[in-house]
């Protein structure tokens, strides 16, 4: 079938960095001209046409780990790019112009499933309905009439991913030579493991089943059914969920404030619910991985990057979050050390730095919060820069990497959504549901009285 995804190690990341810098420059210049001349937003969009096309071209050709990096930047680094650039990035990373020709799609399906799509499906769309970092998606219909989507992996994407991972490994080894504080090799190993697992759609199907069970107490979260007889290592067939993606919904001018809040509440449940209940995290909360469904439901897709976290990490976060909600004084150094953090150097400095960080990241615990005005990411970065030595001496456990990717992605989604409302109450309800359905293996590792004390604290707070 030949290769479809561009290789070349450093070249791939250099191209992404270059186009991102030029896009930001063009956006800032276009915005300045628009304001100087008193032009409307439509003139700005017209001026950005060539810039958007260049961004489409480069990101569409990268795929693999480089495109995953683009997804992460577009969601997490909210304050580096202007608003228009963030929207363009998010859109392109779920709808790429570089797609597999239908002939190659048919060849790959035949190689994986033993027959071409014309024989396996009652109908199969030659044009993909979505295209992202590792594969593209086609609409189809089974012979029993069920509407499905078929995810087909790009030919050559394994080689591109391995190229990107070697690049990342070289960078990590180079930083490690500069001293232990910058040694990120263990985190690179975690990224490598997750990305390689995402290349096997059979593993994704297994993770989907695990996540569905973990999310069972939140019935408004909908997980599509896997069609096992039409799935293999590089082909995954799923029940089709009909509705706009989170990105499409966020860009809809008809979506009202209450609707945006309700969708945001489902996003909070999707990240925090399975984590608190069972220690399972959905670590790829890209806006193309959510479908806004009728009756306040939210479809959740793409489970290749799920991660099971250890009881000690999950229980430490139970303590962190519930004590923050109760307004209790906390020793953040001691709690994080129980989660597996290594905190070196002067402990009082570490406590002061962590208290300052908590004051930033816990802003959404106010009675109401406007995510459209959120500046948590940039303020965290400024706080870390001002106390860089202390920050570098707080070493997070490897397993936390996917948790923080999920948490940062959730914040990015909520900001993209411009959701506003009582998210504190949403988190409190999510905690109460998780506690009522707590996985036995998690409860078995809890310190005596942990959940009972928390429950009593919340009852007192509610009474007050």
Mean pLDDT value: 82
* Strand segment tally: 14
The number of distinct helices, counting runs of at least 4 residues, comes to: 21
Globally, the shape reads globular
**Proportion of helical residues:** 55-70%
What are the SSEs and their pairings?
Blueprint lengths: L8 H29 L3 H7 L1 H14 L1 H13 L6 H10 L9 H12 L3 H4 L2 E2 L5 E2 L3 E7 L5 E7 L3 H20 L8 H14 L2 H14 L6 E2 L12 E5 L6 H5 L6 H22 L1 E3 L7 E3 L5 E3 L5 E3 L2 H16 L5 H7 L3 E2 L3 H15 L7 E2 L5 H11 L1 H5 L1 E2 L4 H18 L2 E2 L1 H14 L3 H6 L4 H14 L1
Parallel strand pairs: 5-9
Antiparallel strand pairs: 1-3, 2-3, 3-4, 4-6, 7-10, 8-9, 11-13, 12-14
Summarize the entry for a quick read:
By secondary structure, this protein is α+β, with helices and mostly antiparallel strands.
List keywords for this structure.
disordered C terminus; 464 residues; three-stranded mixed sheet
What does this 3D model show about the protein?
The structure is a single chain. This protein is of the alpha+beta class. Among the domains are: 9-92; 306-463, no CATH class. It is 58% helix and 10% strand. It is built from 21 helices and 14 strands. The chain has helices at 9-37, 41-47, 49-62, 64-76, 83-92, 102-113, 117-120, 157-176, 185-198, 201-214, 246-250, 257-278, 311-326, 332-338, 347-361, 376-386, 388-392, 400-417, 423-436, 440-445, 450-463, and strands at residues 123-124, 130-131, 135-141, 147-153, 221-222, 235-239, 280-282, 290-292, 298-300, 306-308, 342-343, 369-370, 394-395, 420-421. Strands 1, 2, 3, 4 and 6 form a five-stranded antiparallel sheet that branches. Strands 5-9-8 form a three-stranded mixed sheet. Strand 8 (290-292) and strand 9 (298-300) form a beta hairpin. Helix 1 packs antiparallel against helix 3 (49-62) and helix 13 (311-326) runs parallel beside helix 21 (450-463). It is globular. It starts with 8 loop residues before the first helix and ends with a helix. Mean pLDDT is 82; it is low at 39-45 and 455-464.
């Amino acid at each position: 079938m030949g290769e479809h995804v561009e290789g070349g190690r450093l070249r791939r990341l250099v191209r992404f960095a270059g186009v991102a810098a030029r896009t930001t420059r063009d956006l800032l210049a276009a915005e300045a001209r628009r304001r100087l001349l008193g032009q409307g937003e439509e003139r700005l969009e017209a001026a950005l046409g060539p810039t958007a096309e260049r961004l489409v071209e480069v990101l569409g050709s990268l795929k693999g780990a480089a495109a995953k990096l683009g997804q992460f930047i577009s969601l997490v680094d909210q304050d580096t790019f202007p608003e228009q650039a963030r929207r363009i990035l998010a859109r392109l990373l779920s709808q790429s112009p570089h797609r597999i020709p239908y002939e190659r799609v048919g060849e790959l399906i035949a190689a994986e499933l033993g027959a071409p799509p014309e024989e396996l499906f009652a109908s199969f769309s030659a044009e993909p309905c979505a295209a992202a970092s590792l594969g593209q998606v086609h609409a189809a219909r089974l012979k029993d009439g069920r509407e499905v989507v078929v995810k087909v992996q790009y030919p050559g994407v394994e080689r591109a991913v391995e190229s990107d991972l070697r690049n990342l490994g070289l960078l990590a080894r180079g930083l490690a030579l500069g001293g232990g504080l910058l040694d990120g090799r263990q985190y690179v190993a975690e990224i490598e493991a997750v990305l390689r697992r995402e290349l096997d759609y059979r593993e994704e199907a297994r993770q989907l089943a695990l996540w569905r069970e973990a999310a069972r107490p939140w019935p408004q979260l909908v997980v599509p059914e896997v069609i096992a007889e039409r799935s293999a290592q590089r082909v995954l067939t799923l029940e089709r969920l009909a509705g706009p993606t989170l990105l499409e919904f966020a860009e809809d001018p008809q979506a009202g404030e209450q609707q945006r809040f309700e969708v945001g509440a489902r996003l909070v449940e999707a990240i925090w619910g399975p984590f608190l209940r069972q220690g399972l995290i959905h670590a790829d909360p890209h806006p193309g991985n959510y479908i806004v469904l009728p009756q306040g439901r939210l479809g959740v897709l793409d489970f290749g990057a799920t991660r099971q976290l250890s009881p000690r990490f999950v229980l430490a976060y139970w303590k962190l979050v519930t004590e923050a909600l109760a307004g209790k004084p906390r020793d953040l150094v001691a709690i994080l050390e129980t989660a597996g953090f290594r905190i070196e150097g002067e402990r009082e400095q570490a406590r002061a730095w962590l208290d300052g960080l908590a004051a930033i990241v816990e802003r959404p615990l106010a009675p109401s919060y406007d995510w459209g005005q959120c500046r948590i990411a940039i303020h965290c970065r400024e706080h870390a820069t001002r106390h860089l030595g202390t920050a570098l001496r707080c070493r997070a456990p490897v397993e936390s990497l996917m948790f923080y990717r999920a948490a940062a992605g959730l914040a990015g989604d909520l900001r993209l959504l411009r959701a506003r409302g009582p998210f504190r109450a949403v988190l409190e309800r999510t905690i109460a549901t998780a506690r009522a359905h707590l996985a036995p293996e998690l409860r078995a590792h809890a310190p005596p009285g942990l959940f009972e004390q928390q429950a009593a604290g919340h009852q007192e707070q509610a009474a007050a």
